[in-house]
Structure formats: C-alpha cells, structure tokens
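Hello,

Our lab assistant flagged a job as stuck in the queue for most of the afternoon. It eventually completed. Since we weren't sure the result was trustworthy after the delay, we are filing this so someone can double-check. Below is the sequence as submitted and the structure that was eventually returned. Let us know if re-running is recommended.
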Amino acid sequence: MEKIIQITSGRGPLGCQWVVAKILKVFLEEAKQNKIEYEILHREKGDENLTLKSISILLKGKEPDLFLKGWLGSICWQGKSTFRKLHKRSNWFVGVFELEGMEQIRFNEKEIRFQTTRSQGSGGQNVNKVNTAVRATYIPTGQSVFVQDSRSQLENKKLSVERLKEKVMTQHIQQLERKMQETWNNHLQVQRGNPVRTYSGTDFKKNYQDKSFKKQRNILKNELKNYTNELN
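-- returned structure --
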C-alpha cells in the first residue's frame, strides 16, 4: 500500500520551517523502525539553511495507515525560536496531511510504442531514403516525442526513450504540484490547541509527549477490570 503525505509549515514563520525539518528527521526514523519505505517526492526549501516550508513523501508498506494514525494532524513544538530569541511566542505548529487521490507514476519502457519514419529537413541522402527518425509514444499517457537528431535509428531510439521519460515525469511532477496547490488549504488549517504530538527542546526524540492517551486508557481499563472483579 502506498500513501503520499505532506509535512508543512503552512504560512508559519521561520520557526515553523525549522520545526518541519526537525519533524521530518523524526518521521523518517520512525518510518524505518516500522519497516515502511519512503521516497522524497518534492521539497520546498525554507528561508534559511536547514529549514523547510514543506515536503511531500511517498510511503510504501503493509500498514501505513496504522503508522500515520500517530502523525496526521497538527504537531506542536514548545520552545524559543533560535531565529527570534526575543519573540514571546513559545508554541510553533506544523501540519502533517495526506495527499489523497495521488499515485506515484512508474515509467515502464516496455509500454512505449515506437514508429520509424524518414527524417525531415536537410541532412543528405540518408534523410530521404532510410527510416532513421523515431516517434516514441508512452501508451499509458498518450504522450509522444519525435527524434531525428542522429542518422542512426538506434541512437534516435535511445534518445527518444530518455526524452519521453523526462516528458512523462515532468508532467507528473506538475500534476503533483497542482495537487499540492489545491491542498494549500491544509497549510491554512493547521489546527492549534489540539496537536497529535507535542515536542519541546531541541531533542525531539526525548521530549515527545504522547497525545494519544493510550496510557491513560489502559490505566482506566485496568481500574475498571479490578473494580468489576471486586463486585463479583
């Protein structure tokens, strides 16, 4: 199963961009621990080194939904920003959202249809007498390229594969960017006051506070069980 998620600072200040970069590191480490593979699809650099405005990640695994339960929503970092030390703000929020309806495209050379034809324009006798030009069409998307750079059909075929792949992947990236633009509301809807995770200090691992209330639920379950046993 695959999931595409986005970690974003929204329209938050530089402090939030710093938190995105720190959260990314923790997120990827936990993904590895849960045997979930990942691929960085797109990143938007922050206004300073080592900061990120947003990043989109493809997750691959058996149960990514289970892993994401503890991540999707807003995340709060509590502390003073190193970029604005005199600022009174101490809570910095970023968001983790799922980009639904997006699939990672896989370019498969076996799905290319090749057509050979005579080259067009000047180029000597070989242009008019030999089918050296190549038109390559990627069947799943219908995109095509026409290559007549070389007098060698084999060389033109190699070039057509390279250019077609670039064309297909470029369009996919543009679609992904449009999708991220459509989900810009996510940037504006970073919920404050009810984060799924809260961190403090610069060591995000050690300062993580569990907001799932799992421990509290287990305690209540045990108390209820003991109370039921007493009644019986």
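-- support follow-up --
The delay was a queue issue, not a problem with the job. The result is valid. The mean pLDDT is 80. Strands lie at 2-8, 37-45, 52-60, 73-78, 91-98, 112-117, 133-138, 143-147, 197-200, 209-210.
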